[in-house]
Amino acid sequence: MRNTNSTFRHLMVFLLGITSLSVFSGGYLLADEVKLHQRLSLDEARCLRELFYERRVMDDLSASDINKFLAETSAGRADLEGAGKRAFIFVIEDIVYCGTAGCLMLIGEQRPDGRCHIISEGNADGGEVILLRQRDHGYRRLYAPCELYFDGRQYQQVREECPTIDVQR
Predict the structure, then answer these.
(1) The pLDDT of residue 89
(2) How far apart (Å, rounded) are the C-alpha atoms in residues 38 and 126?
């Protein structure tokens, strides 16, 4: 009888530990990190240029400024919809685009017209972007440094108190 109680107690402690870990990690155990890299491929560079043109950032920039942005950008790809179509995720680590709220993060998606269009413009902290399992309108939620959900058109912050791109720098 004593051996059974000891085994049961060990099992309960183990299950309590696993439950605590899951609760205190915010469910992020079931998440995937987007691997960001420095050297942009031709497709990534093209998409980033199209996103900058869409944001009208490139209007007053010289070719050398554009090349500087490309060199200071980390990029990754992620299947946000689960349909095999991988979106472009960019973190621009230029001093102009970084501040207390992190660095500018743009997420682009190639549309049927062949061009990349912005589905998120926000911040990323430290170049880490996490894909969460939860989905909204078919798209996975993101964490970078705040949780983002897809509203059917673009990504939005889950909580208002998260840093935004509009923070004074």
Answers:
(1) 93
(2) 13
* 63-71 and 42-55 helices, crossing angle to 10°: 120
Residue-wise pLDDT tens digits, 139-158: 999 998 789 999 999 998 88
Cβ-in-10-Å burial (0-12, 13-18, 19+) of 146 comes to buried
CA-based radius of gyration for the chain: 20
Cα→Cα distances 20→57, 86, 133, Å: 46, 33, 19
Q: What's this model's pTM, rounded to 2 decimal places?
A: 0.73
Q: Are 148 and 120 in contact (CB under 8 A)?
A: yes
User: Can you give the residue ranges of every domain in the chain?
Assistant: 27-157
Mean pLDDT of 15-41: 62
From 160, 119, 117, select the one nearest 138 (Cα to Cα).
119
Question: What percentage of the chain has pLDDT greater than the value 70?
Answer: 75
